[in-house]
Amino acid sequence: MSDVMVRAENVHKSFGSLEVLKGIDLEVRAGEVCCVLGPSGSGKSTFLRCVNHLEKINAGRIFVDGDLMGYRERGGKLHELGERDVAKQRRSIGMVFQRFNLFPHMTVLQNVMEAPCRVKRESKADVRDRAVALLDRVGLGAKTESYPGQLSGGQQQRVAIARALAMRPKLMLFDEPTSALDPELVGEVLDVMKDLARDGMTMVVVTHEIGFAREVGDKLIFMDGGVVVEQGAPREVIANPQHERTRAFLSKVL
Amino acid sequence: MSDQTTTERARPEPIKAVPVRHPGRWVTIAILAVLAAMFVHLLVTNDNFRWSFIFLSYEDGKRGVMFTGPVLEGLRGTILLTITSMAIGIGLGVILAVMRLSPNRILSSVAFLYTWFFRAVPRLVLAILFGNLNILWSRVGFGLPFDKQIGDLFGIDNFNGQFYSIRAVDLLAGFVAGMLALGLSEAAYMAEIVRAGLQSVDQGQTEAAVALGMSRFQVLRRIVLPQAMRVIVPPTGNETIAMVKDTSLVAYVPVAGELWFQLNAVSARTFVVFPVLVAALIWYLIICTVLMIGQFFLERHYGKGYGATGRARQRLRDIEVEQGGRITTTGEGT
Ligand SMILES: Nc1ncnc2c1ncn2[C@@H]1O[C@H](COP(=O)(O)OP(=O)(O)OP(=O)(O)O)[C@@H](O)[C@H]1O
Ligand SMILES: [Mg+2]
């Protein structure tokens, strides 16, 4: 395991003629929690999706735990990885979405067991034990046989976290995990994430929860217009933003 | 009042009210009852229906026309033809739908052309066409295309690039021709149904599955298709029932082992027309009823995890557990 979990070097991404990421540089060390802040449309989601190669980048490099994402470098030339190799890289990266994206036709337990059983082909009994333990950990031990449609938003998001953890990822990506939740449900999801952070999970979290960033974050990135405007220790950036745009944004969300 | 609230709150009396009257409904029901009675009267009193011809015996020493050997054989053929052609239709339909949605232009155009062609050609024409394909080719085989022409080009006489071939009449006569005509035509319709189903599934589902490291095939098989089934099953039920009746078209291929052909044969021999039609109608009714029951269970299976009823049932179960008691419900659910 290398010390640096995520390294982004000069990442560019365009959709057609719209350039969304204009050279992102970022380093997240193993065990760190990196919070990403920024106004809507600044490219936060896009960057996160580039990290696990859900989007192909146009220029730059992204390394996760030392592996170049999506490509193989041989003789100074880049070769695109096949579907199978990309899938293999993604296995060790968990992702949690704003809209949960649980599989509605499966029970909570099946949701959590699906990927370890099908993708990693682990034994069903082992996976079941682990899944039940994970669901207990996120406080849903009693809901294993429910369908996602029968759960509240907060419960669904906790299942989604358990589902990602079941693959034993070394990195977790969160894309505004609490933005679709009623205010009184936000806390239960953040508690699970804090618990994860305490356990030493490396996390990249796009969020508007300043309190969470200040309390749990080791690093804060402020993005605007496809570039990293400012970064540093969360407390310092929040208390004393150096850049005008950061100041303007923080004054709106605080 | 006030002392009530200090102790446990009493459950209020159940409401006993006179329900709203619906005189219009009763009038409608009365009219329908009279019409039904008239219909039954018509069926039982008119001897020309010849029920015994249909059910008991149509000739001396023979069973009723519905249950004679050739007709039962025909029934078997009809069911077999429905199953096989729908299997081809659904299997090929899924492949075509996936091709149609592929980002690869060539694949999606091929799927489009297929759908365009087979939806445009009437099934009856297709059935007759397939029955006569052996006029075009004496042998049907599988191998290199243009093998003879390539052989000629290099000066080899009778170069044979066929790996496997059989006589066309063996393959394309009768049943197989009918099955292919119906199945290939059905695939075009199923492709559209499956495509609509696949597109109805939220893009986030694919994204979540891919992010977990699932392959594209696994995503389709485990995540997208099962959810698409909710949209796919009802129109597929329609298609299957339509197919049961369209199998009668293969009488023109011609295929003898089919219900309509066999009943017609009886009719031609005995000069009895109407009761034979009624016998056909009864068999088609029975098959379609069975299919509708099957569809009901399929829809229930793929409806798992959806809908207010599931949610309400779960709530009820939760309350039951909390109260440690039992709430009686009418109707048993999954
Ligand atoms: N698949 C796509 N095709 C075209 N444009 C896209 C696509 N995905 C994102 N964009 C555009 O890229 C820009 C950045 O989007 P992104 O979702 O990364 O922003 P964000 O910072 O996550 O915003 P939000 O806070 O609203 O989620 C937006 O202008 C968006 O319209
Ligand atoms: Mg976003």
With strands numbered from the N-terminus, the spatial order across the biggest sheet of chain A is 8-9-10-3-11-12
The CATH homology group name of chain B: MetI-like
Poorly predicted runs of chain A are none
Mean pLDDT of chain B: 84
Assign an overall shape of chain B: flat
**Structural class of the secondary structure composition of chain B?**
mainly alpha
Distance from first to last alpha carbon of chain B: 43 Å
List of distinct ligands in this structure: adenosine-5'-triphosphate, magnesium ion
Sheet/helix structural class of chain A: alpha/beta
Largest interface: A-B, 33 and 27 residues
- The appropriate CATH architecture of chain B is Orthogonal Bundle
Count all strands of chain B and give the number: 2
Q: Write down the secondary-structure element order of chain B.
A: HHHHHHEHEHHHHHHH
CATH C-level of chain B = Mainly Alpha
How much of the sequence of chain B is in beta strands? under 5%
Low-confidence segments of chain B, given as residue ranges, are 1-5, 325-334
Largest sheet of chain A: 6 strands, mixed
Radius of gyration of chain B: 29 Å
Question: Helical region count of chain B?
Answer: 14
SSE order of chain A, one letter for each helix or strand: EEEHEEEEHEHHHEHEHEEHH
Pfam family, one (chain B): BPD_transp_1
Protein name (chain B): ABC transporter permease
Main location (chain B): membrane
Keywords (chain B): Amino-acid transport, Membrane, Transmembrane, Transmembrane helix, Transport
What does this structure look like?
The complex is a heterodimer of chains A (254) and B (334). By secondary structure, chain A is of the alpha/beta class. Chain A is 37% helix and 28% strand. Chain A contains nine helices and twelve strands. Chain A has a six-stranded mixed sheet, sandwiched between helices. Chain B is mainly alpha-helical. Chain B is built from 14 helices and two strands, in the order ααααααβαβααααααα. Chain B has a two-stranded antiparallel sheet. In chain B, helix 9 crosses helix 11. In chain B, 26% of the residues are buried. Chains A and B meet through helix 2, strand 8, helix 3 and helix 5 of A and helix 10, helix 11 and helix 14 of B. Bound molecules: adenosine-5'-triphosphate (ATP) and magnesium ion.
